[in-house]
Amino acid sequence: MPGTGPAPAxxxxxxxxxxxxxxxxxxxxxxPDFQVETAxxxxxxxxxxxxxxxxxxxxxxxxxxxxxxRWGSLYDALYGTDAMGDAPQAGGYDDxxxxxxxxxxxxxxxxVAPLAGASHAAVTRYWxxxxxxxxxxxxxxxxxxxxxxxxxxRGAADAPSAVLLKHxxxxxxxxxxxxxxxxxxxxxxVADVLLEAAITTIMDxxxxxxxxxxxxxxxxxxxWLGLMNGSLVETVAKGGGSFQRRLAADREYLxxxxxxxxxxGPLPDAGAQxxxxxxxxxxxxxxxxxxxxxxxRCHVHRADCHARPAPAIRHTQFGAWFGLHRQAEDARA
Length: 333
What we know:
By secondary structure, this protein is an alpha+beta fold. 19% of the residues lie in helices and 25% in strands. It is extended, with a radius of gyration of 28 Å.
């Protein structure tokens, strides 16, 4: 009967020896040196230097703020923090502090995208000509010291609403709006300078939150899906009212250099004509007018051979690192 016999002797497991581990195939002989490479890794992860955020995906507001933090206002960051050496005083808008912000931002532009023989502080107008950035000053017309810093623009080439620059694989946008409260007082109409900020975001399901039961997991994956398809919206209460936080719209630009998608190469000027794409064997229209996938996940479109703006092709390049091409909304919620 159970329990009436002698107690079994305690079992001991033999200590695995290297010889035994090799016999069973657990240990293998050391092989020659080798290298491991990866493929199809987004540049945001592989090569672009930048900040990475970590937020709990179950909190929709935090997740949306993190995704939208891919782009941020340099003016707001300087004005609202102690980045210039002192914090802002309570009260209304401080004109003197605002002037310091603008001067700081112009010095920053001189460092990341310097002009040949002039400062961005002296510019009264920006425009695009022959695929290059041109700037007007009191002493004449100048361009970038390194023309390759210009990536694209938005609006008309002779009066762009935005100029997109690149430095160390990170993008900087000069936003131009002479009707804006800041732009209308600026000699060049610059309303803001936008920077790529949080390049990637980890949406955390373990460390920051405890997603352990079915309800928690369903919420986490529901928010994740909403970030993937752009449908996630969160109502935020503030100051006795409320507003909706959602993913900001994609940023789209025209490439600075107009180039045909066939061997005839770049256009010499805006009036040049190329043969229609249907006349180019092996170069279907889908290759003629398309978009360039830039590292910033801001969509840069080439103009076609008649120098008309390329169609505003809508891309949703979301993947596991979904907050990669969304501009910053006002995050002061």
